Amino acid sequence: MTAVSGPFLRVFAIIALAVGLTACEPSDRTPGLWLSGEQTAFPDDWSFTQDHQEIFVEVSTPYLISHSVTIWCASLEGTLFIGARDPDTKNWPGWVDRNPNVRLKVGDQIFDVAAEPLSDEATIAALRTVYADKYDLPSTFLEGTSTSRYWRIVPRAS
């Protein structure tokens, strides 16, 4: 067995660092780590998010490494909501339950926010309609036959 040479290790470390720095954000169904972009203040009206089919959410994990995923969002009366379909099959909804302070990336903007669980059935029904219209979802979505959870996006507590 031969020892790995110093130059090989340096090249490997440089490549690993480059991949690590460029592969931080999620892509489609592949999760990422931390999000980068222009830090932006909490807006009074989130209606601009209707122009974005997908956004990113970054959550804290029990192993102290940020985890980010691509999600859908909807704005209802200027308030932003995010959701998870089949949340019991994913880790990030449970992590949000443990620590509701999340980061969102919308376009190139980063928002430090909190995710407040939504349980009001009337709001959920209205939100399902907004999601169905925005994403051209079937009527079964409106009937609530799939398991989904939703969070209202609010400013972080100081």
What does this structure look like?
This protein has 158 residues and is of the alpha+beta class. The chain has a single domain (26-155), classed as Electron Transport, Fmn-binding Protein, Chain A (Pnp Oxidase, Chain A). Helices cover 27% and strands 29% of the residues. The protein has 4 helices and 8 strands, in the order H-E-E-E-E-E-H-E-E-H-H-E. Strands 1, 2, 3, 4, 5, 6, 7 and 8 form an 8-stranded mixed beta sheet that branches. It is globular and about 65 Å long. The model has no long low-confidence stretch (mean pLDDT 86).
Topology:
Layout: H1 6-22, E1 38-39, E2 55-59, E3 67-71, E4 73-76, E5 79-85, H2 92-98, E6 101-106, E7 109-117, H3 121-135, H4 139-142, E8 148-155
For the record, the CATH architecture stands as: Roll
Mean pLDDT: 86
Distance between the termini: 57 Å
SSE ordering: HEEEEEHEEHHE
Tally of domains? 1
Beta fraction: 25-35%
Rg to the nearest angstrom? 19 Å
Poorly predicted ranges? none
Query: What structural class do you assign from the helix and strand content?
Result: alpha+beta
* CATH topology term: Pnp Oxidase, Chain A
Corresponding CATH superfamily: Electron Transport, Fmn-binding Protein, Chain A
Count of DSSP-assigned helices? 4
Q: What's the CATH first level?
A: Mainly Beta
